[in-house]
Predict the 3D structure of the following.
Amino acid sequence: MKRKRIITVGGLGLVLAAAFLLYWFYFSTPEAFPVKEELVNQINLVFPDASPKTIQDTVFLDDQHVFVPFITKSNEYGVSYWAWERHKWQAINIDTVGEPRLWRVDKNDPASYYFVWNIHPSDSISKMKFYFVRDRAFHVQGGVSSYTPKIQMEKEEITQGKSYGIMKLPNEWITTMTSIQKAESASQPDLFSSIFPRGNMYFAFTPFHESGEEASMMNSVNGNGYQNGDITVDFIIYMNQLEVPKEE
């Protein structure tokens, strides 16, 4: 009986120790973020092609995710995405392309979505307009016709004076997206409509020179990248033909 009790206590101790190690490894409080010199070393270690020369900033999205723009030795303006994973800070994505991207920190929560960028100064971009768009559509199903109106929401971001930046998804966009997704989920009759949901929703952007003319981003779209981790970074459509409401 005593031997059985010792074995039981020992087994419980092993379970508790394993649980502690699991928590320590995956859910521990993040340590201080590396200094800029260490960030350069880590980027060079995992992705030598980036050849970072200068870390421009460390921008915390939350306590476990950090956006780090940098300049390479060949004068490219790159971006890196960092996360606290497995008890250490890791560069989970590095890219020498600086045009706007959408970082979905938690892909199931639009409140965690951020536009991020690091635009080369030679592109002379003074502002950008970001858009949430749902195209209009007409559907006939089961003899019933339905029309989905177009949605086009806009947010302007001034970029003049700083090559890099972030923009959190506006609250009104999140509210609209959530409402649309709930409505579509409620109306989906089968598996096929859940795979191909009604309503074409996407994000877009348009860059502008200081003169107000639309700009190109030839110096910010070429490069290469590295990924090592669970991260969702989406391309954003370049939009140069906006739909303008008709005046009444």
In short: The chain has four helices and 16 strands.
